[in-house]
Write a structure and sequence with these properties.
alpha+beta, conserved putative lor/sdh protein from methanococcus maripaludis s2 fold, six-stranded antiparallel beta barrel, 22 strands, about 30% helix, CzcB-like C-terminal circularly permuted SH3-like domain-containing protein, UPF0194_transport
C-alpha cells in the first residue's frame, strides 16, 4: 500500500515538472515571435523612410516644335454665278447642260422673243409718229409765242416717251438671251428642256474651277496668330491620304458668325494644281495653319510644366527631396512646350500626379 502511494506521488511530481517546463517554453516562443514581428515592422519602417519615393519623370530633349491652328472648312470658288432671266417667258432654247464648259460671254439660253419684237415694232411706229408730229408742230408755228412753246414742249415730251419705250423694249430683247460673264463649268440647270414657261427661281449656275480655294473659319481667339503667307497643310475628306501643301492668301477684316453662334473670321488658302486631285466646290476638309516653327530647341511634354502666380515651374527630385524649379518657356504646341531657361538637356523632371502621396508645391524648396 505504502509503495503504491509513493509511486503515485512520484508520477505527479514528474508530470508537474514537465508542465512547468512546457509553460516556460511557451513564454519563450511568444517572446521570440513578438521580437521577430517587431523587428520586421521596425525594419519596414526604416526601409520606407530610407528608400526614395516612387515617381515618373520626363527628360528635357531637343526637338522641332510647330505651333498650328487646327480648323475645318470647304472648297469654294472666287468666280461663281447663278444666272436668271430678268423677265419671265417661254424658254425658246437651252444651249448647255450640267458638266458643259462655257466661255466668257457665251450665250447659254434664250426666251421666245416674238412677242417682244412685235412690241418693239409697235413702239418704233409710235416713235416715228411722234417725231412727225413734233416736226409738224415746229413748221406750223413759225412765230414764237407762248402757245407755240406749250405745243412744242408737249410734242417734245411725247417724243421722249416714245424713245424710252423703244429703248426698254430693245433692252428686254437683249435680256431675253442669258449670257455667262465668266468661263467655267455648268453645275446646275433647273430647266434643261425648251418650250416651257420659266419661273422666277429657275437658275443656271456656273463655276470657274481655275479660281477655287479652301475657306476655313478661324475663331477670333486664334485669328491674331495667323498671317497671310503662313504655310498650311490641307486634308480633304475626298482625298484622305493626300496632304495638300498650301498657304494663307487672305484673312477677312470683318467677322462672321459660325453655325454655333461664335465669332469667326474667314480665311482663304490656295489650292495648288496636283496630279490626281480634282477639286470640286463643296469638298469638306481640315487644315493645319502653321503659325510658328522652331528647330532643335529644348522641350518637355506640355503636362510636365505647371504654372501659378509666380510663373511656370517644374518639380525635380534633388538630394533626397522634391524641389521646385522655376523655368522660362517659349513656343507651345498641343503636346510639347519649349524650355528657354532653367533646365539643360537631359534634366529629369517629375511628372505631376505620378508621385506617391500628395506634394504641396507651395511648400517645396526653391531650386
Amino acid at each position: 500500500m505504502n509503495i503504491r502511494i509513493g509511486k503515485q506521488m512520484q508520477t505527479r511530481k514528474v508530470i508537474g515538472d514537465l508542465w512547468q517546463k512546457a509553460k516556460r517554453r511557451k513564454r519563450v516562443s511568444v517572446l521570440v515571435l513578438v521580437a521577430i514581428v517587431g523587428g520586421i515592422l521596425i525594419g519596414r519602417s526604416i526601409y520606407l523612410r530610407a528608400r526614395p519615393p516612387e515617381y515618373k519623370t520626363a527628360a528635357v530633349t531637343k526637338a522641332d516644335l510647330t505651333q498650328t491652328i487646327e480648323v475645318s472648312g470647304e472648297v469654294q470658288a472666287e468666280e461663281t454665278v447663278d444666272l436668271h432671266f430678268q423677265t419671265l417667258g417661254k424658254l425658246a432654247w437651252i444651249g448647255v447642260k450640267e458638266g458643259d464648259r462655257v466661255k466668257k460671254w457665251q450665250a447659254v439660253a434664250g426666251l421666245d422673243k416674238r412677242t417682244l419684237e412685235k412690241q418693239l415694232r409697235q413702239d418704233l411706229n409710235d416713235f416715228e409718229k411722234e417725231l412727225r408730229d413734233y416736226g409738224q408742230a415746229v413748221s406750223d408755228n413759225p412765230q414764237v409765242s407762248d402757245r407755240f412753246k406749250r405745243i412744242l414742249e408737249q410734242a417734245h415730251y411725247d417724243l421722249t416717251s416714245a424713245i424710252i419705250d423703244v429703248e426698254i423694249k430693245n433692252l428686254a430683247i437683249e435680256l431675253a438671251t442669258l449670257v455667262s460673264p465668266i468661263e467655267g463649268i455648268v453645275t446646275r440647270v433647273d430647266t434643261p428642256v425648251a418650250g416651257v414657261n420659266l419661273t422666277a427661281s429657275d437658275t443656271i449656275s456656273i463655276v470657274n474651277p481655275d479660281t477655287m480655294y479652301f475657306e476655313a473659319e478661324v475663331d477670333e481667339t486664334d485669328v491674331s496668330s495667323a498671317s497671310t503667307g503662313d504655310k498650311a497643310i490641307i486634308s480633304l475628306d475626298a482625298y484622305e491620304n493626300r496632304d495638300i501643301r498650301s498657304q494663307v492668301t487672305w484673312i477677312d477684316f470683318t467677322a462672321s458668325t459660325s453655325e454655333g453662334g461664335g465669332t469667326v473670321f474667314l480665311v482663304k488658302l490656295a489650292l495648288p494644281v496636283i496630279e490626281g486631285i480634282a477639286y470640286r466646290k463643296g469638298f469638306n476638309g481640315d487644315v493645319s495653319i502653321i503659325v510658328e516653327e522652331k528647330k532643335d530647341v529644348l522641350s518637355l511634354p506640355f503636362d510636365a510644366v505647371d504654372k501659378d502666380d509666380e510663373g511656370p515651374f517644374v518639380v525635380v527630385y534633388k538630394d533626397g527631396a522634391f524641389v521646385r524649379q522655376t523655368v522660362a518657356t517659349g513656343l507651345e504646341t498641343d503636346d510639347e512646350i519649349e524650355i528657354v531657361a532653367g533646365l539643360k538637356e537631359g534634366s529629369e523632371v517629375v511628372l505631376p500626379g505620378s508621385v506617391e502621396g500628395k506634394i504641396d508645391v507651395q511648400k517645396l524648396r526653391r531650386g
